[in-house]
Amino acid sequence: MQPRTHVTLEDVARAADVSLATASRALNGMRVTPQLRDRVLAAAAQLAYTPNAHARALAGASHRTVGVICHDVTDPYFAAVAGGVMRVAGANDLLVMLASTFRDPEREIAYVSMLRAERAPAILLIGSGFEDARWERAMEAELKPYLDGGGRVAVVSRHRSLKLDSVLPENRAGAAAMARALLELGHRRFAVLSGPRALTTVTDRLGGFRDELAAAGVTLDPAAVVEGPFTRDGGYQAMTELLARGLDATCVFALTDVMAIGAYAALRDHGLSVPGDVSVAGFDDIPIVRDLTPPLTTVALPLQQLGEKAMEMALTENTGRRRRILRMAGEVVVRASTAKLGA
Fold first, then answer.
1. Residue 196, CB half-sphere, CA atoms under 13 Å: how many?
2. To the nearest whole number, what is the mean pLDDT of the chain?
3. Domain range annotation of the chain
C-alpha cells in the first residue's frame, strides 16, 4: 500500500484524537503526557507524516521571522491590518509568516505552538479573543513559557484575561458613537447583524451600541439581533433571516463592513433599496465601502496603523513590568447609506 501524500499535521491530530496544539507539541519534543506523545507518534508513523522540508529549512532563519496569526487574511479588515504589520517588519528586515485561523480557537493555539517550536522572536495575534475560559487557559499555557524564554507577543483587539501588550481599537466607544449618530438622524427602530457571541469584538460592539440606545430610552429587541459569521455570506444570511421574520427596523447596523456588504446584496435580491426602504451602517471602514452604491456609513478605524503599532510594540522591549496598552479610537463617517428621517 502506497503511503498517503500531503499528510498534514491536522491529519495526524485527527488520527490520534488530540488537538492540533497537542499534536504540534508532541512532534516538536515539547511537554505532553507520555500517553499522548505515544498516540501522536504512532499516528504520524502510520500516516507516514513528514514535516514540511521547506519549513524546516526556514527554521534556521527563524530569528528573522515574525509570526502573525489572524482570523482570516481574505477579510479586508485583516488584510489592511496585516499590511501595516508588514510595512514595519520590512523596514526592520524581518520576514512575516502569516497564518489564518478562520476563527477556530484550537487552530490559533496550534499555530502559537508551531511558532514557539520555530523559535520566532515575536508573535502577533490580530483579531478578537474568545469569550472562552478553556481557550484562555490553553493560550496562556502556550504563551507563558514563550514569554519567559524571551519571546515577544503583541495583540490587536481585546483578549479578556491574557495580560499581553495590546493595541486596542475602541470597539465599544465606536459602536456607541454610531448609535448616537443614527439617533440624531431620527432612527428609533434598529436591527443588528452580529458575529459570533464568543468573540470579544462582538461583545464590545454590540454592548456599546445597545447601551447607548438604552441611555437614550430606546430598547434594542433581542429578537432583532441576528448572529452569523463575520463574512459577506454571514451578513447575507443574517439579513435574509431578518427579512423572513418581517423586518421591523428603519436601520440595520452590521458589526462589520463585510457583513454590511452581504446585507446590501440580500436587500437588493428582495427588491429593497438602501436607504430608501432601510438604512444600513457598518463598522471598520474597509476601503471598498466608499465605492458601494450607496457608500456605507461606518465607524472608521485606522486599520493599517493598528498593524504598524502592534509590530512596533513587539519590536520594542518592555522595560517595565506592566503590560502596554495603546487605544486607537474610531470615527463615525456618515455616508449615503443612512437616511435622515422626518420629525
1. 15
2. 88
3. 1-51, 171-302
Sign of CA dihedral 70, 72, 74, 78: negative
Which CATH class for the 171-302 domain? alpha beta
Which band of pLDDT confidence, cut at 50, 70 and 90, is reported for residue 243?
A: very high
Running DSSP on this structure, what letter comes out for residue 297?
Answer: B
Bond prior to 294 in cis (omega within 30° of 0): yes
Q: Decide if 1-51 and 171-302 have a common fold.
A: no
Q: Which CATH architecture has domain 1-51?
A: Orthogonal Bundle (1.10)
Whether residue 301 is predicted with pLDDT greater than 60 in this model: the reply is yes
Mean pLDDT, rounded, for 223-228: 95
- Residue 337: name the closest of 235, 169, 126, 185 by CA: 185
Q: Which residue in the block uniquely carries the three cell numbers 447596523?
A: 253
With cell 514569554, the residue in question is 147
- Kindly list the distances between the CA atom of residue 143 and the CA atoms of 30, 135, 188, 253, in Å, as whole numbers in the listed order: 13, 12, 45, 36
Q: How many Å apart are CA 185 and CA 206, to the nearest integer?
A: 20
Is pLDDT above 90 for 40? Answer: no
